[in-house]
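FORM 7B: Structural annotation worksheet

SECTION A. Query
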Amino acid sequence: MSTPLNTPAASGFTVRALGPTMGVEITGLDAAVAQADTTIAWLRALLQEHSVICLRGQTLTEEQQIAFSRQWGPLEDFPEEDKTQNAATIYNVSNVSAQGEQLPESDHRVIFQKVNARWHTDSSYRYVPSYASLLYGIEVLPPEVKDGRTGFSNMFMAYDALPAALKARLQPLHMVHYYEFGRRLFPELPPVSRHEREHVPPVSHPLVRVHPDRGFRRSLFMTANAGNEISGLSLADGQALHRELVEHIGRPEFCHFHRWQTGDLVIWDNRAVLHKAEAYEMGRYRRVLRRTTLAGDGPVLGPYSLPG
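SECTION B. Predicted structure
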């Protein structure tokens, strides 16, 4: 059942679809002020139905973004000690330092952004992955620049499009997710700290995710930036299967690419979509985005996680 876009909670807001695969855009909602419980419930229902929400025209301090996010539920603390500033719940997606200086592409804070240029879901390296992410556009690329978008891939559509034989093959399989994998992609990054290693050890999640709150519908649940190994298969066979799935989820008919405007607050459901940062000339253009992440409420359920 589709979530009504025009409800009493939506009074004064304008809502329109972002594209055919997922997403709605909302104007007229000010996330800097406390929202009514009915408005948050309406937004959660929209996210459940459409997977991506873009709130246009926001002006948010760090504290206001945290406050709005907490109206949705508990936030995650980030394990990365050197990429947070004033609050452990804030992650700075930026090629600009805290002092406002544009960083060189060789700076490890910039290289970390390149890790996110692969399809992934935030915090998949946790035993309880996140529910949703909220990313706020503070400085964005000039409108004439065609790169630097954020891509989203609909994992329900991607799963439904798989051949029956491949669905059957995937049903019992798990993927190994680990935070340290980014160092394999970019060995020039500093090694993980003891703090990071202790807080985010490797975990295994079902490749096929079952959603009890969506009528037990199935989706893919995987990542390309936090692992490429499949439990139960040889390393070569698992990596070959992983490459096949990564190619599959990038098909245009599953995807939406968001072009940032200053003041966008984009919220996406990490249980339902993957996302990735599109490359741009990091040495030429400044970009400052700020993320908060809503904690999940339980481990990933697969086809064999359910009773009966």
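SECTION C. Observations
The chain has one domain: 8-294. The helical segments are 37-50, 62-70, 108-115, 155-160, 164-170, 181-185, 194-199, 235-249.

SECTION D. Sign-off
Analyst initials: ____
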